[in-house]
């Protein structure tokens, strides 16, 4: 039966915790009752052999009342407070030390039982279930010290019992911690699954309504021209942003021209998200693709350079796709378009002519980072630029280098155009003037 919902303001649900801890608390409750009965039986059996049987009887009466009156305390973690655990352990240790007073030394040397007997282990186990193996280690150490004091001189049986309760309590505490961690992981996975299902449901509803309306406005606006074309362009941008949102892509806050990248790893998907539009589709993993700041910025700029070539040379109707893959040993980013492709030898010729858009803005950036950039194009079938950055280079922050001044570029050699989302970097992107060049 599922647990009741938790009260507002408290994380988690009590029902979820019951699935892991409640059986342990119930077992501990039963253990305390059974071991109380066992301790009373041992006391009754040895009554005539005790040095002060009435004094021992008084303690056994206290132990009985304490155990039965606190059964509700050990049925849940919320009721089993630190104060209760401290008092409970004090009752157990008092009984162990009192044994040396009410029993004869001969019986103690022969290995006679202590007054609480194995009931003491219940107190230690309560620490283990409540606080894990560290709490169990502290409680079992205190009990072990009391046992050694009660015996006077450590015997083999005493050491055996001490080590046994030590190992058992710490092991149970560790198992409890592992179970709690597993429960949290499972709860998180269920939350993610529920959120994913809800996102998919919303995506279906939005796709059937809002996205289709925005697409129609964009199409009709482009057909009408004039002010309607501007309205269509804005509708296309909103459609792309909404599509990115419902598919799980992040929508970062806009950065001004004077903003700089903060220190610490950056999510490549977040940096690439501004490129998504009606003509650019971004596909990325559902989890962040974290890179060192310099590596993330340079890889983003290389993608911007590739998209800039698409906009300039593939035509207004061309569509581009950005695919981000986070592999164990490398980060791969592919930029593909459906333009006319690149004529064979065109890239080499452009480099010889001093047009270094691909050579420097794309390949040069990846080379400086320790990665590679491969351009694969078939005339008439579009172009694909594959950017590969090894993880060892992506995770290690690059040493700062002085940025050389960029000379002015003649009008006939290409135009410097900052890629979308890269205004903060103010890095010019040089592209080939040949109309056959695509991303």
UniProtKB/TrEMBL annotation:
Residue stretches making up the Signal transduction histidine kinase subgroup 3 dimerisation and phosphoacceptor domain: 198-230
TM segment ranges: 24-45, 51-72, 84-102, 122-146, 158-176
Ranges where the DUF5931 domain occurs: 16-187
GO cellular component, one term: membrane
Keywords: Kinase, Membrane, Transferase, Transmembrane, Transmembrane helix, Two-component regulatory system
Pfam families documented for this protein: DUF5931, HATPase_c, HisKA_3
Taxonomic superkingdom: Bacteria
One term of GO molecular function: phosphorelay sensor kinase activity
InterPro entries assigned to the protein according to its UniProt record, in alphabetical order: DUF5931, HATPase_C_sf, HATPase_dom, Sensor_HK_TwoCompSys, Sig_transdc_His_kin_sub3_dim/P
Region of interest (Disordered), residue spans: 418-439
Biased composition (Low complexity): 418-429
Occurrences of domain Histidine kinase/HSP90-like ATPase (ranges): 298-392
The protein's name: Signal transduction histidine kinase
Organism of this sequence: Actinacidiphila alni
Lineage, broadest ranks: Bacteria, Bacillati, Actinomycetota, Actinomycetes, Kitasatosporales
């Amino acid at each position: 039966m599922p647990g009741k919902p938790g009260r507002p303001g408290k994380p988690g649900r009590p029902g979820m915790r019951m699935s892991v801890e409640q059986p342990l608390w119930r077992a501990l409750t039963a253990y305390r009752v059974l071991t109380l009965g066992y301790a009373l039986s041992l006391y009754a059996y040895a009554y005539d052999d005790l040095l002060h049987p009435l004094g021992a009887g008084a303690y056994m009466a206290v132990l009985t009342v304490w155990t039965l009156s606190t059964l509700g305390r050990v049925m849940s973690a919320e009721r089993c407070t630190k104060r209760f655990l401290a008092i409970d352990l004090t009752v157990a240790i008092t009984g162990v030390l009192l044994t040396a007073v009410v029993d004869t030394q001969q019986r103690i040397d022969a290995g006679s039982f202590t007054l609480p007997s194995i009931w003491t282990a219940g107190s230690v186990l309560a620490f283990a279930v409540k606080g894990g193996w560290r709490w169990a280690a502290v409680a079992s150490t205190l009990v072990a010290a009391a046992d050694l004091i009660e015996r006077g001189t450590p015997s083999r049986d005493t050491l055996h019992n001490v080590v046994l309760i030590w190992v058992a309590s710490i092991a149970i505490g560790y198992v409890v911690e592992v179970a709690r961690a597993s429960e949290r992981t499972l709860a998180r996975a269920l939350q993610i699954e529920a959120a994913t299902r809800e996102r998919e449901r919303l995506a279906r509803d939005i796709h059937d309504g809002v996205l289709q309306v925005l697409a129609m406005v964009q199409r009709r606006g482009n057909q009408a021209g004039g002010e309607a074309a501007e309205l269509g362009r804005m509708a296309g941008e909103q459609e792309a942003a909404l599509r990115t949102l419902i598919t799980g892509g992040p929508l970062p806050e806009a950065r001004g021209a004077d903003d700089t990248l903060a220190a610490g790893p950056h999510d490549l998907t977040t940096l690439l998200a501004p490129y998504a539009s009606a003509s650019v589709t971004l596909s990325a993993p559902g989890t962040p693709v974290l890179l060192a700041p310099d590596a993330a910025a340079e890889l983003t700029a290389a993608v911007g350079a590739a998209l800039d070539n698409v906009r300039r040379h593939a035509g207004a109707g061309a569509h581009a796709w950005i695919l981000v893959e986070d592999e164990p040993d490398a980060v791969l980013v592919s930029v593909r378009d459906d333009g006319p492709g690149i004529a064979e030898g065109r890239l080499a010729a452009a480099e010889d002519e001093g047009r270094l858009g691909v050579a420097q803005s794309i390949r040069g950036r990846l080379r400086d980072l320790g990665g590679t950039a491969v351009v694969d194009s078939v005339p008439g079938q579009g172009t694909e630029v594959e950017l590969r950055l090894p993880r060892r280079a992506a995770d290690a922050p690059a040493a700062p280098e002085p940025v050389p001044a960029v000379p002015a570029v003649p009008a006939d050699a290409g135009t410097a155009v900052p890629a979308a989302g890269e205004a903060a970097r103010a890095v010019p992107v040089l592209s080939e003037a040949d109309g056959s060049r695509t991303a």
